[in-house]
Amino acid sequence: MNLSRPIRPATQPLTIRAWLPAAITLLALGAALALSFDSLSAILPPSLWWHALWSPDTNDIQQIIAHDSWLPRVVVSGLCGAILGLAGTIFQQVLRNPLAEPMTLGVSAGAQLALTVATLWAPALLGAGQWIALGGALITAVIVFGLSWRSGLAPVTVAVAGLVVTLYCGSIGVALQLFYAPYLRGLFIWGGGSLVQQDWSNVTTLASRLVIGGVLTFVLLRPMTLFGLDDVNARSLGMSLRRMRLAALALAVGLSAAVVSAVGVIGFVGLAAPALAQMAGARRLSQRLVIAPLFGALILWLTDQTVQQLSGVMGDLIPTGAATALFGAPLMLMLLARMHRATRLPGGNDSVARRHPVTAASLQRRLIGIVIVTFAAIVLALDFGHGPYGWHFSSLDEFSRVAIWRAPRTLAALAAGAMLAVAGTLMQRVTGNPLASPEVLGVSAGAALGLIAVVVGFGDAGHTARIAASAAGALAALLAILWFSQRSRFAPDRVLLAGVAIGALFQAVVAVAIASGGERATTLLQWLAGSTYTITPTDAAFALVLCVVLGALTPLCNRWLHILPLGEASARALGVSTRGARFVLLLLIAMLTAAATLVVGPLSFVGLTAPHFARLLGARRPLQQVLLAAPIGALTIVIADWLGRALLMPRELPAGLVATLIGAPYLMWLLGRRR
């Protein structure tokens, strides 16, 4: 009898766990149905529902809306969700990566950029929009998989490559929207994933793609099942890995492009649906290929109906794709917390520095040389430009008139570049991760989230409020990333993947913030692209003061930067409180990032590239790297601001965009050469 007592409580949790997925699914299905009926009742009385949906009266506008807009939107949400669930399952199976999906792999961003370019320069081709989207998706997929091929398509490398390509495509898209806002204003909402429908054309197209994709998927079922094994076992069974992998990936890319061409970017459904299918007990691939699309359809259907309710309350149109990203980013963090395996990234270019030791005198000469070049760049940015008579140096009289506009921008860019470089150096030293930077890890995204919250909620806030909000956002992003990566003892790959999730959450919030269009959207887009257009002398002085103060605090942390990479036990043995030291360093990084983000926006990659260039020049110690990286970062942003201002005169390219165009290819090269 005593043995029977512990059996009952042991079996009861298993029963609850077995029923829980089904109960949650039924609850979600009931909520989707209830919300759908509620939105339909706002259009028509229930007595007319059946007649309006199947044979509407062409003289009744409400019945036409129900038949040609409401019902197609419901069907399209289900079809898009199912297609994305299928594509996500294929990506995750082939890449053996539970975090792979169209949005995190850059496929959706490439398709969207291709459609944006076609809208501007080849509108006649938009009739074949699905092929244009497919072409853009294929190009970005080739880039992402090409960058990570030498690493064996390792999950962390694929995720980082997808993030970089997504940010690169996104920054170009933002710049195009700034230049051609009147022509692309509709893309503000469409780019966030709008499911608004006017007829049944998208239903027909998406249904055919789902059927064709489903048939091809089950044709490839056996090869994809073998991808669950390691490569050696798969080859022993006679499978051509490269050919089958490329075929399956091409199928998933095509499915993703079909959704983007129809409704825009829908985020994280491809991540959530396969994960929920596994939680529901689908262990075999054949089961997941059926259940994941059903979950995807339910997720997007429920999300879209919820968005319609919130849109009425808030008075703004919220893109459904942005809303799914708001839900999906926390899910990605949850999946990340459940991952147990951690792999270390190579130690960057430190080996180069060790092979070629540099003396202190040589480093000093190089530092002086960089400072001289930076000073020359400042003079060039202030005095050399493009005017009515071509390129020329300004006369003394002309300089007195243009300096009031050029000087604040140049000095603010100088301060922002130095602060981003110092922040990136500190992050790489604290995490031991050569790919860490405020942009890649989502710290700049956190700072941007704080600023957007202030701008949207309180309008024209002062400098103090903006700095406080940006610093709070950056610190919150840092703490979230490190909290989710602490189970792996801050393994570099785990920190990077957490940053990917934070960055995706940032993109979703931005899409919601600019969805309503208008002046607020244009202002946010200018700032996100890294514009210094609106910098005043007060702003420049404020940025310089912060740069000097925060830069002066950095040498005080030199001992911690030497000791913390040695590990927890060694640091404590040397009398360093790791928790307190790490918190102070994180706070300093957050302040540096927040101040720089206010000037050049959240995307520039200076925080990544400047520390690497400093290391390539021979800086091995933390303080040496900071002293070399700061002027390199300042030089980069000053030149980027000058080029953006002068190259396309009278138009301007934002400094952050120019720096991204310079920095992102370097990161791609860095990823591509890793094994």
Protein model, in words:
By secondary structure, this protein is an all-alpha fold. The chain has two domains: 65-338, ABC transporter involved in vitamin B12 uptake, BtuC; 374-657, ABC transporter involved in vitamin B12 uptake, BtuC, CATH 1.10.3470. The chain is built from 28 helices and two strands. It has a two-stranded antiparallel ribbon with strand order 1-2. It is globular. It is found in: Cell membrane.
Please describe the topology of this protein:
Layout: H1 7-41, H2 49-54, H3 61-95, H4 107-121, H5 129-149, H6 155-179, H7 181-190, H8 201-219, H9 221-226, H10 231-236, H11 241-263, H12 269-279, H13 285-314, H14 320-338, H15 350-355, H16 360-383, E1 384-387, E2 390-393, H17 396-431, H18 443-458, H19 463-485, H20 492-514, H21 518-528, H22 537-553, H23 558-563, H24 568-573, H25 578-600, H26 606-616, H27 622-646, H28 655-672
Antiparallel strand pairs: 1-2
